[in-house]
Amino acid sequence: MEESYRHPPFDPRRLNPMELDPVKGPIDREFGADFRIQTEEGWFVERRGLGATSEAVVEDRPYPSVVKAQREGWFLEPRPLHRRLRRMVDGVAALMLLTLLYLALAPGFDALNIPTIGTESVRLGLLDYPLLGLIVVPLILLPLVLRLTANVGDLRRQSNIIADDALTLTAEFGVANSVGTTTVVLGGSAQKHAVFASLQCGVLAPRRHHIMNALGRSNTGQPPPGMTTPLVGTEPAFGDGTGVGEESPMGRHDWPGDVYLRPMRLAAHGAWSPVVDGQVEVSAPDGPWPGSLYDALVRIHWEIVVACDHPSHGRLLHVTPVRAKWPDEEIPALMVSLTDGRAEHAEPAPTR
Q1: Whose CA is closest to 210, among 233, 240, 245, 234?
Q2: DSSP codes joined into one string, 37-51
Q3: CA distances for 18 relative to 22, 39, 48, 305, angstroms
Q4: I want to staple 4 with a disulfide (CB 3.0 to 4.6 A). Which of 24, 38, 47, 124 is the partner?
Q5: Do 169 and 244 belong to one domain?
Q6: Any alpha helices (H) in the chain, and if so which ranges?
Q7: How many domains does the chain have?
Q8: Residues 102 and 217 in one domain
Q9: What's the CA gap between 307 and 289, in Å, rounded?
Q10: Model confidence over 210-250: pLDDT tens digits?
């Protein structure tokens, strides 16, 4: 019995997955069944050698620490402005490089009597600057300033949510079904503001020390390709060890959850179902997917996400981790689309 995976790092575009050796390790219990979750690029998660589903169909191991740290409680839904500004940053960076190239070639154009635009000098203080540079630099700083402003606004919203002791939401249900539907009864003060809910599942990245042990390396030694060196003073549950990226530059971590809900890289979600009178019937993703599983290397996590339109706090997401029982039928090879690691690129919930 063996489990293996080739999990995508934060920025998978920089690596060719077919050139990376999978991380492999033994399965320490007869639980669950064989399955394989993969992407067209070559990333995958797999368990093999178990055969059919075992009699114990519900995971009894505790939730990993990353669930409480990043996948439970209240979250803000990223504004579309974040996504647009990030694309704008790519454009202005290209514009800056083209401007520098143009200014570097300007003396050659003058020598060939080719007219140039914006190369004349403008004196500011004791120094001269090219006119074109004074035009381009504000354009480069604009998306950064707007992004900083948007993040400060989100940080204030998060602080207001933390200070609102009356903001509560509970989700009552039995064991979630990995096939079909699950009935969820909502409660708490925010129940009347809940509009949609969805049952989602995906693969959590393994903890760093499990990866290093499976590769036979020291936890303080040279990491494999795609994995960063350990960050001193960082909570072990934060980050998946495969890369450090700017998901949300600011945020408070003195409450369960984060500013934004971080997408699971290999994941699927059921359709968004409308909440009616505090009750909703959520559907499992197509598959069927494996039930809840928290092994050393392979971790399948399920959660219920509820979208709320609060009159004071705006659009909020509330996440409740769930345990899903394993399907009775054989689990086919699941082909999924690789999800972007940045929370701001997550698919937004529908609106009424």
Answers
A1: 240
A2: EE-TTS-EEEEES--
A3: 9, 12, 20, 34
A4: 24
A5: yes
A6: 65-70, 80-111, 131-163, 208-214
A7: 2
A8: no
A9: 23
A10: 888 887 887 777 777 767 776 665 554 444 444 444 444 45
Say whether both 145 and 289 belong to one domain: no
- Write the single-letter amino acid at 204: L
> Are 71 and 219 found together in one domain?
yes
250 with 174, same domain: the answer is yes
| Same domain (yes/no): 275, 232 | yes
The amino acid occupying position 3 is E
Handedness of CA 298, 302, 308, 312 (dihedral sign): negative
d(CA 240, CA 227): 9
Is 191 inside any structural domain? yes
- Provide the whole-model pTM: 0.82
Q: Can you read off the two tokens belonging to residue 102? A: 């143009």
Domain with 113, as residue range(s), is: 82-161
140-198 pLDDT, tens digit per residue, is: 888 888 888 888 888 888 888 888 888 999 999 888 999 889 999 999 999 999 999 99
